[in-house]
Amino acid sequence: MVKQLSEANFETEVLKSEKPVLVDFYADWCGPCKMTAPVLDKLAEMVDNVSFVKINVDENQNLAAKYQVMTIPNLVVFKNGEVVTRAIGAQNLDALKALIEKAL
Questions:
Q1: Structure pTM?
Q2: Which of 2, 27, 51, 102 matches a 20 to 30 Å C-alpha distance to 19?
Q3: Cα 81-102-38 angle, rounded to 5 deg
Q4: Which residues are catalytic?
């Protein structure tokens, strides 16, 4: 399951997470973001050793700025509170699997 987060719970859910976290920085109006959402949902069902979360950049502009999100979707993998890798733009299932494998 992909969990919706905000600035209020980002530190607890992402930075202090005991397992890697894939963060989908997105916006409701973004077409490629809408294409990526079902792929992320499917991957979240397949992988249990990684957390999957979404951050709406329009509602959480400080987080987007802090992590230099200039283009969306912007998929960022965190491990131990640090950015490990990222991908920009719509991604297919294989690309997302490869992205999280870098964090494991």
A1: 0.95
A2: 27
A3: 90
A4: 30, 33
